[in-house]
Every structure is written in structure tokens, then in C-alpha cells.
Amino acid sequence: MAKLSSHVTALFIVVALVCAFNPVFSVEEAEAKSLWNTCLVKITPKCALNIIYVVFGNGTLIESCCHDLVQEGKVCHDNLIKYIADRPSLISRETQFLKKRDDVWNHCVSISKTA
Predict the structure, then answer these.
(1) Nearest-5° angle of CA 83, CA 60, CA 22?
(2) Which of 34, 47, 68, 74 is most exposed, with minimal Cβ within 10 Å?
(3) DSSP conformational letter for 58
(4) Cα–Cα distance for residue pair 39/115, rounded to 1 Å
(5) 110 against 80, higher pLDDT
(6) C-alpha to C-alpha distance for 35 and 30, rounded to whole angstroms
(7) Collapsed DSSP state (helix, strand, coil) of residue 91
(8) Phi-psi region for residue 26, left (φ > 0), alpha (ψ -120 to 50) or beta?
(9) What does each C-alpha distance from 12 to 60, 72, 109 come to in angstroms?
(10) Tens digits of residue pLDDT in 5-52
(11) Which tens digits make up the pLDDT trace of 64-91?
């Protein structure tokens, strides 16, 4: 339970950091923030955090989160990951993150088709 609590806390920290950087960026960021707010409500915090750990770290994808991800939709998934990957501290590894983003999406779609 403590592990889940720390994951949820980490998710909120990521969201807070992204929001904190928002005023520094261009008008396009307003669109990204709107998409973030629209898409974030379509996936559980547990699954959002799991997917973030998989794309940006060495996490293992929880298969039950694939359903949430596919329901969220590819546009939301792509834009949310791109939004995080565009942070200055991550930009040097953006290509790597975008590949992992696509790998996660393709895996989840294949699981959803067989379910």
C-alpha cells in the first residue's frame, strides 16, 4: 500500500512540475495543457503513473492499464508523453521516450485485440 501511495504522490509531483513550467512556454503550451487536462481524466492515476514509469524509466507495464490506455486514445497518449518529454531536462532523450511511447501503445493495442 505504501508503494502505491508513493506512486500516486510521484504522479502528482510530475503534474505539479509540468504545470509549474507552463507559463515559461509559448501559446502552443496552452493547447497542450488543455489536452493534458482533458486526457488526464480518462485514465486512473495508478495507470498514468505506471505508463510514465514504463516510458521514462524501467517500469513494467501492468496489463490491466492497457485497457485504460486504449480507452484514453492514441492522441491523448501521444500528446501527454510528448508534453512531458519536451521538458528541458528530458529533451536530450526525447527520441528514446517517443519510441518507448509507441512501443507501449502497440503492446496495449495488441492485448486489447486479443481480449
Answers:
(1) 15
(2) 34
(3) S
(4) 24
(5) 110
(6) 9
(7) helix
(8) beta
(9) 20, 19, 27
(10) 555 555 555 554 455 444 444 446 676 677 778 888 888 989 999 999
(11) 999 999 998 998 899 888 888 888 788 7
